[in-house]
Design brief:
alpha/beta; Rossmann fold; 25% helix
Length: 202
């Protein structure tokens, strides 16, 4: 049975008063990319993580490439963050990164306006599937290169080329452990979604 883990901020936060747009955003990427960490770092409310311990039984179906990882998301991560200057509240939904949880992905993506895609330069090919899913669903997204301690630095133009990203797709550097870094990535995504509103181009 999956267990729900709640992490608490220093003080409880409720939705802001006034006229704010409430927007559903997906935080996506392959297994072990930092989705849970990112939502936990930035959420204003106690973030919800539905996780299971990892066992060797999953080795035949999952790519267990991440050292020292002991649990995995099996349903959803959830948190929210307010962008006061844009008067937007982002509801953040993290999705499982393994192919076997695709049925959950199909449910979670309903009603989402866009997505933040976390990638790792050491395994960029692992990100293609989730970007394909977003494009099939017609969801705009921004890409954030998560900086792991042993991640080599790469020029963003090279990363854009390797990921075959369109010029209009935002590409930023992010540290999923750092609140301000994740917040900056989400602001970039929000600005992109606002600029794309009403744009009928594919």
């Amino acid at each position: 049975m999956a267990f729900a883990h709640f992490s608490s901020p220093s003080a409880p936060v409720v939705l802001p008063d006034g006229d704010y747009d409430l927007v559903k955003i997906l935080v996506v990427g392959p297994f072990g990319i930092g989705k849970t960490t990112a939502i936990d770092a930035v959420s204003e409310i106690p973030s919800l993580h539905t996780e299971e311990p990892m066992t060797q039984a999953a080795a035949s179906v999952d790519d267990l490439v991440v050292d020292s990882k002991t649990t995995t998301t099996v349903a959803v991560d959830f948190g929210h963050i307010t962008l006061p200057t844009s008067r937007i509240v982002l509801y953040l939904f993290g999705t499982p990164g393994q192919e076997r949880f695709r049925v959950i992905w199909n449910d979670i993506r309903q009603g989402a306006l866009g997505a933040l895609v976390l990638v790792d330069t050491r395994r960029l090919a692992a990100s293609f599937e989730v970007m394909d899913l977003l494009e099939e669903a017609g969801l705009d997204y921004a890409v954030a290169v998560n900086q792991f301690p042993d991640t080599p630095e790469h020029d963003l133009d090279l990363v854009r080329s390797k990921l075959d990203l369109e010029n209009r797709t935002p590409l930023v550097i992010c540290d999923a452990r750092d609140r301000q870094s994740v917040l900056n990535s989400l602001r970039t995504l929000a600005d992109h979604l606002v600029s794309r509103a009403g744009d009928d181009s594919p």
